[in-house]
Amino acid sequence: MPESLRKLTWPLAALAVLLLFNALLNPEFFSLHFAEGRLTGSLVDVLDRATPVLLLSLGMTLVIATAGVDLSVGAVMAMAGSISAVLLTDVGMPVLPTLLITLLASLAAGAWNGLLVSMLGIQPIVATLILMVAGRGIAQLLTDGQIIPIEGHPGFAYLGGGTLFFLPVTITIALAAALFTAIAVRYTALGLFIESAGENPTASRYAGLNVRAVRLLVYTLSGLFAGVAGLIYASDITAADANNAGLYLELDAILAVVIGGTALSGGRFFLAGSIIGALIIQTLGTTILMTQIGGQSIPAEWNLIVKAIVVLVVCLLQSAALRQILTGKGVRG
Amino acid sequence: MRTRLRIKPQHLSLVATAAVFLLLYGAAALRYPGFASWFQTTELIATNAPLGLAAIGMTFVILSGGIDLSVGAIIALSSILLAKCLVEWNLPVPLAIPTVLVGGILFGTASGVVIRWFRLPPFLVTLAAMFLARGIALVLTEEKRLSIAGHATFDPLVDFLLFDFNLPALIFVVGIVVAIGVARYTRFGRNVYAIGGSEQSALLMGLPVGRTTVMIYALSGLCAAGGGILYAIGSQSGDASVAQLLELDAIAAVVIGGTLLSGGVGSMGGTLLGVLILGVITVVPVYEGDLNSWWTKIAIGGLLLVFIVLQRLLQRQRH
Questions:
Q1: Which of B127, B129, B300 sits opposite A133 (nearest CB)?
Q2: Is the dihedral of CA B7, B257, B124, A263 positive or negative?
Q3: Are the CB atoms for A215 and A127 separated by under 8 Å?
Q4: pLDDT (mean) for A164-185
């Protein structure tokens, strides 16, 4: 079995167990209905709701593959929502240029992170921490700390609530982004460059690879995807909420990537794994919301505890040290 | 013979931090009457005491080359646990406080053990610990907030004053003095620096790397639990949703204080200055009245940027 497939076994098994659990507890979970020109049902709902984390995790996978991390994606989401709200409502700009400018701004935010990491050589955690803190401040500054409703823009509302191919349009957007990323990294040398830069930057540089350019690119891409996720979120709630948009989502995105089998230390990365990881996280949330034990629903607070346990179990399963301990070989040190 | 004031390169970053603090504090003192008064100064220390204690633990963690994302959640959990112990389980204060502190130590120890035994990245393990602690805090109370006001054995702690220092301020001051001593003059402190400098070398030197790593996270858990108790004293309540993302402020304070996130370089005194700088920046919008709190975030981001770029340039010069 090729390594990429073997790496996907655990995440796929986890997703299957979650789905099976739902099927046993709630037969309705897998039923799909056709209403108002689109398919509806829990499965569609999970896919629809998973799109922001899924988009973030695509960019995050590439960033983590270069042995970095992007903590600012949640703040960039909030910024994207605020920028589009200000342009649409205060400036009165049409939808298309608004989307374009918002995406350009997100791209610039990503490039800023990339510059700090690649040109100044600042550690990724700190470099992106700056934008994580300041970015949300800028988003709140733009909207004056208020929730700005975005109404009367059907084009903008379509982004988060529209239907395409009988499914929520968000699914198509996420799929397109995933395909774009997959083609870019697997049908060009880019994927190899990213893995090489993450595995051993020094050797890569001596081999003639422009490691700085690779790093700059992945952070820029991460910013762009965060911008798309921010637009979808703002469109979904038809408002820009600078305080809550994307809050804690950077952590979910990192989790999705790690659950998907990509190591935080960089090198080999698994895009499909990250997508499955994002779906696992969303399915988990939906499961906890829907599960009833003895007619009582589980309080939403348990979500965090279950998430913590899943993270730990998945990480331990993938840890080489645990395998060594179990097979009796022990660990050095 | 000419004597010149020479600053050692390793102290440059600390001097820069001190200069920024004096500048900020001086400007605020000139602009707002009463800002530099004894009462306001003790107040500044008291309000930042929970963050300060957490930042002490975080400094040890970062000095060793790790990171602890769970401190904010442990503060919330500890404050709720203390309230639970006192109000619902009717434990006296001398029993309740050790219970909470031991809880913090256990939480930190668990993180450290998982990090060390399974060689998992501290970032991930403490992220899981953060979810777990916050989740337990939310599950413990249905109303998310428990008042401890009017509790017979707890009230003396709330009312305690020594030269206008209330208990949180006093504990933070004592804590930072002890931490400076531990970091500089104990075997544990030197081991922390050694591990952060190079874990491989520390191992080859025969230092107890595993034990020290677990102790570092246990200490961070203890500091966070202490922070939770200080929060409970300051607000006379336990609150499951308090200290959201406080770990980021703690990390920012440590970094502004001149400690390198790569480990091995930094000082506890710098962390004290970092906490005070954050404290002044946070309180300025209150004095300014019309200035909004998001300027605080932008200012902290800007300061982080300046300090990190400065450290980077200093590092390059040295190599």
A1: B300
A2: negative
A3: no
A4: 87
What gap in Å lies between CA A84 and CA A93, rounded to an integer?
9
DSSP-assigned letters across all residues of B225-256 = HHHHHHHHHHHTEEETT-STTHHHHHHHHHHH
Task: Write the ipTM.
Answer: 0.76
Mutate to test the interface with B, among A312, A322, A326 (most CBs of B within 10 A): A312
Residues 6+ apart with CB under 8 A from A39: A32, A33, A166, A167
What is the CATH number for B265?
Answer: 1.10.3470
Do A122 and B131 lie within an 8 Å CB cutoff?
no
Domain limits of chain A?
9-14+38-326
Give A9-14+38-326's CATH code, choosing from 1.10.3470, 2.60.40, 3.30.70, 1.20.1270: 1.10.3470
Instruction: Pick out chain B residues at pLDDT < 70.
Output: 1-10, 290-291, 315-319
Q: Does residue A102 have a pLDDT over 90? A: yes
* Residue A261 pLDDT level (bands cut at 50, 70, 90): confident
Torsional class of B111: left (φ above 0), alpha (ψ -120 to 50), beta (otherwise): alpha
Q: What is the mean pLDDT of residues A133-141?
A: 86
Mean pLDDT of chain A: 83
Q: How many domains does chain B have?
A: 1
Chain A residue at shortest CA distance from B240 = A301
Give the residue from chain B lying closest to A243, CA to CA.
Answer: B294
Q: What is the DSSP secondary structure assignment for residue A177, as one 8-state letter?
A: H
Assess if residue B228 is contained within a domain. yes
